[in-house]
Design a protein that fits this description.
The complex is a heterodimer of chains A (321) and B (285). By secondary structure, chain A is an all-alpha fold. Chain A has one domain. Chain A has 16 helices and two strands. Chain A has helices spanning 2-14, 16-40, 43-46, 58-65, 68-101, 104-107, 111-114, 121-161, 166-171, 176-193, 195-207, 212-229, 238-251, 276-279, 282-287, 292-314, and strands at 260-263, 266-269. Chain A has a two-stranded antiparallel ribbon with strand order 1-2. In chain A, a hairpin with a 2-residue loop joins strand 1 (260-263) and strand 2 (266-269). Chain B is of the alpha/beta class and 285 residues long. Chain B has two domains: 29-56 and 66-205, P-loop containing nucleotide triphosphate hydrolases (Rossmann fold); 216-282. In chain B, 33% of the residues lie in helices and 28% in strands. A six-stranded mixed sheet of chain B has the order 5-6-7-3-8-9, sandwiched between helices. In chain B, strands 11-12-10-13 form a four-stranded antiparallel sheet. A three-stranded antiparallel sheet of chain B has the order 2-1-4, with helices on one face. In chain B, 44% of the residues are buried. Classes of the chains: A mainly alpha (321), B alpha/beta (285).
C-alpha cells in the first residue's frame, strides 16, 4: 500500500502544475477580480437578489427588503459560480493529464527507467486512474474550500466597507458546508460519469506512438464517417456510439453540479434555475446513479482501462535498435 | 549454482528481419560479460528480451524466470541502466530516491545518499538541471544501492566525456562488483571496458559468433608482428586477419600455440577491439 501511495505521489510530483499551481493561480485571479469589483463600486452586489434587473439602492435595498431566502440564493450564486469554474478548469487539466499519462514517458524514454523497477504495469495504470478519479477531484475540492473561505471573507469585508453588514448580508446566509458536501458527492459521481471518457483517453495515451490528442479525436470521428458512407445499420454503428458516449457526456456539462439531467422528455439544466441550491438537492444529485447510461459508461470505461493496461504490459514499443 | 541467464534458440523477428536468430547463451553468476556487436546486430533486442521488454521465441530464463511473463517480479533481482537519457527530466533527485525507496524492497537509501554526497548533485535539483555526466552518476548511485543479482548496462556511458566514463567503470568495479553479482554490458567503446570483463560475447546479424572467457581469449588468440620476409610462412598458418602497420604486417591467429608463432615475429596479446574487427570483417573463426 505504501508503494501504491508513492505511485500516486509520483503523479502529483510530475503534474504539480495542474494540481497545485493552477488552482492557486485561479484563486488569485478570482480574488483580484472580486477586489477590483469591490473597489470600483457597488455593481458587484447588485444582482444579489438573483433577478436579472438592476436594483436601485444596492446594499441598502438588500438589507431592508431582501428575504433570507433571497440572500442565501445570492451567496449560493457566489459559491456555485466560482466552484463551477474550478470544476471546468479541473476537467481540462484531467483530460490533458490522461492524454499524457501513458504517453509522455514513452516519448522521452523514461519508461525504460520506470519499467526497470519492480512495479507492475497494472499498478502503474491504476495509480493513474486513481489520480483522475479521486486525487485530482479531491485536490480541487480542497482548493475550492480554501478559496471560498477566503472569498466569503473578502466579499464580507467589501460589503462592510460599503456600509453594509457582512453578517446579515453574507456570512449568516451563506451555506458553504452544504455546498461543499454536495460538491464532494457530485465530484465522485461526476468522475464515474466521465469514466468512459477518461478510460478512452488513457487507452489512446497507452496506444498512440505520437499525437495522442489527435488520435483521441480522430478515431471516433473517422469511424463515424465511415459508417455514414457505408450506411451501417444502427446496431453496427460502433464509431457513432463511441462518439456519442464520449461527446454526449461533455455536452451535459463538464463541471460537476452543473450537468443536465434528462428526466423523460424534459431536460433540466442544474444550476439554470434562479436557485442553484434547490436544483442540486441530494435526490437530484443521486438520481444519475440509477440511470442505465451511468453504468453502461462505467463498464465501457473499465474495458478501455483494461485495454490500456494490456497495451502497457505486452506491447513492444521500440521496434528498432 | 545455475546460470543467471539461460537462452536457447532465442529468436526475435521484426517483420522479415531477424533481430535475433537462434541465440544460445549461458551466463554464470559472478561474471562481467561484454555483449559486443555492430549496430543492428541484435544487442539491444537481446537485452530487451532479457529485461522483459519484448516478447520472443525460444527459451529464455533470467534468474530462473521468464522475463516477459514475470517482468515486475524479475525486477527485484535485476537492475538496468539504458543510456543516460532515461531518467525522467522533471523529477527531483530527492523524489526519485523516495520513489525507488518505496517501490524497491532491496534499496539501501543511506548507501545511495552516501554515494551522492561525494558528487556535486543536490537533493533539490531536477534531472533536467543536471549535466549528462551527473545524470549517469545519479542513476549509478540508485542502482548501486540496490542489492540486485544482475545488472544490465546498455551503452551506459554514451555521450559522456572520458572522465565520467572512467569514473563510471571504476565505481562499478570497486564499489559495486563483489564477485557474486553478474554484470552484462553492451557498449561501442570496447577498449574502455576490456580490462574489466571476464567474459566476451560477440553477436553479429542476430547470431552469437563468439562466446568465451577473457582467459580463453588470451590463450587462444595472438597477434604477431610479422616482418615482410616471414609473411609467406605466416600466411601458411592462416591468420584470421592481416593489416599493415609501419612497414610490418600484424597478423591475428586463433588456436595456434606460441611455439608455432614464435619464429614468425614478435608476439603480442590480442585486444578485444582487434578480435572484434577480425570477427566482424572476416566472418570466419
Amino acid at each position: 500500500m505504501n508503494a501504491f501511495m508513492t505511485l500516486i505521489k509520483r503523479e502529483y510530483w510530475e503534474h504539480r502544475g495542474g494540481f497545485f499551481k493552477t488552482p492557486i493561480w485561479l484563486s488569485g485571479i478570482f480574488l483580484l477580480l472580486v477586489a477590483m469589483a469591490g473597489i470600483t463600486g457597488k455593481s458587484a452586489m447588485i444582482r444579489f437578489d438573483g433577478s436579472d434587473h438592476m436594483v436601485e439602492g444596492g446594499l441598502k435595498y438588500l438589507e431592508t427588503q431582501a428575504t433570507p431566502e433571497q440572500l442565501r440564493m445570492g451567496t449560493d450564486a457566489l459559491l456555485y459560480g466560482t466552484g463551477s469554474i474550478f470544476g471546468f478548469v479541473m476537467f481540462i487539466v484531467l483530460v490533458f493529464y490522461c492524454l499524457g499519462a501513458l504517453y509522455d514517458d514513452r516519448r522521452d524514454r523514461s519508461v525504460l527507467f520506470w519499467r526497470s523497477l519492480p512495479v507492475s504495469d497494472l499498478n502503474t495504470v491504476l495509480s493513474k486512474v486513481t489520480t483522475v478519479m479521486l486525487v485530482g477531484p479531491m485536490i480541487y475540492l480542497a482548493a475550492i474550500i480554501i478559496f471560498q473561505l477566503v472569498l466569503l471573507g473578502v466579499v464580507g469585508l467589501i460589503v462592510m466597507f460599503q456600509g453594509g453588514s457582512p453578517m446579515t448580508l453574507v456570512w449568516l446566509p451563506a451555506e458553504p458546508l452544504t455546498y461543499w458536501a454536495r460538491l464532494f458527492v457530485a465530484l465522485l459521481l461526476h468522475a464515474l460519469w466521465l469514466l468512459p471518457l477518461y478510460g478512452w483517453l488513457l487507452l489512446v495515451s497507452s496506444w498512440a506512438r505520437s499525437r495522442p490528442f489527435l488520435w483521441a479525436l480522430l478515431v471516433p470521428a473517422a469511424l463515424s464517417l465511415l459508417e455514414v458512407w457505408f450506411h451501417a445499420t444502427a446496431s453496427l454503428k460502433v464509431g457513432h456510439q463511441l462518439g456519442d458516449l464520449l461527446l454526449s457526456r461533455l455536452s451535459t456539462g463538464i463541471a460537476p453540479l452543473s450537468w443536465k439531467m434528462t428526466d423523460g422528455d424534459e431536460v433540466v439544466m442544474i444550476g439554470s434555475t434562479n436557485d442553484p441550491g434547490l436544483s442540486t438537492e441530494w435526490s437530484v444529485i443521486m438520481e444519475r446513479l440509477y440511470t442505465l447510461d451511468m453504468w453502461v459508461g462505467v463498464v465501457v470505461g473499465i474495458a478501455f482501462i483494461a485495454g490500456a493496461i494490456w497495451i502497457r504490459r505486452y506491447r513492444d514499443d521500440s521496434a528498432t535498435e | 549454482m545455475s546460470a543467471v541467464i539461460h537462452a536457447s534458440g532465442l529468436s526475435k523477428r521484426y517483420g522479415a528481419k531477424a533481430a535475433l536468430d537462434g541465440v544460445n547463451l549461458d551466463i554464470q553468476p559472478g561474471r562481467i560479460v561484454g555483449l559486443i556487436g555492430p549496430n543492428g546486430a541484435g544487442k539491444t533486442t537481446a537485452l530487451k528480451a532479457m529485461l522483459g521488454l519484448t516478447p520472443f521465441e525460444g527459451t529464455l530464463e533470467v534468474m530462473g524466470r521468464d522475463p516477459f511473463r514475470q517482468r515486475h517480479e524479475l525486477m527485484h533481482d535485476v537492475c538496468f541502466i539504458a543510456d543516460v537519457a532515461v531518467l525522467p527530466r522533471w523529477i527531483q533527485v530527492g523524489q526519485v530516491i523516495d520513489y525507488v525507496a518505496a517501490v524497491h524492497p532491496r534499496f539501501d537509501r543511506a548507501h545511495c545518499e552516501g554515494v551522492l554526497a561525494k558528487t556535486q548533485i543536490s537533493m533539490r535539483q531536477r534531472v533536467r538541471e543536471l549535466s549528462k555526466g551527473m545524470v549517469v552518476q545519479l542513476h549509478l548511485a540508485l542502482v548501486m544501492a540496490i542489492d540486485a543479482r544482475l545488472l544490465v548496462l546498455d551503452e551506459p556511458t554514451l555521450g559522456l566525456d572520458i572522465l565520467y566514463r572512467k569514473r563510471f567503470y571504476e565505481q562499478l568495479l570497486n564499489d559495486y562488483f563483489d564477485g557474486e553479482r553478474t554484470i552484462l554490458i553492451t557498449t561501442h567503446q570496447v577498449e574502455e571496458i576490456e580490462h574489466l570483463l571476464t567474459d566476451l560475447i560477440f553477436i553479429k546479424d542476430g547470431k552469437v559468433v563468439l562466446d568465451t572467457s577473457m582467459e580463453d581469449v588470451a590463450a587462444r588468440y595472438h597477434q604477431v608482428l610479422v616482418p615482410a620476409d616471414r609473411m609467406e610462412a605466416a600466411r601458411a598458418l592462416k591468420p584470421l586477419t592481416e593489416r599493415r602497420q609501419l612497414g610490418r604486417t600484424v597478423c591475428l591467429f586463433g588456436d595456434k600455440s606460441e611455439a608455432q608463432l614464435a619464429d614468425l615475429g614478435e608476439i603480442h596479446p590480442v585486444s578485444v577491439a582487434d578480435l572484434f574487427v577480425a570477427y566482424m570483417e572476416g566472418g570466419q573463426a
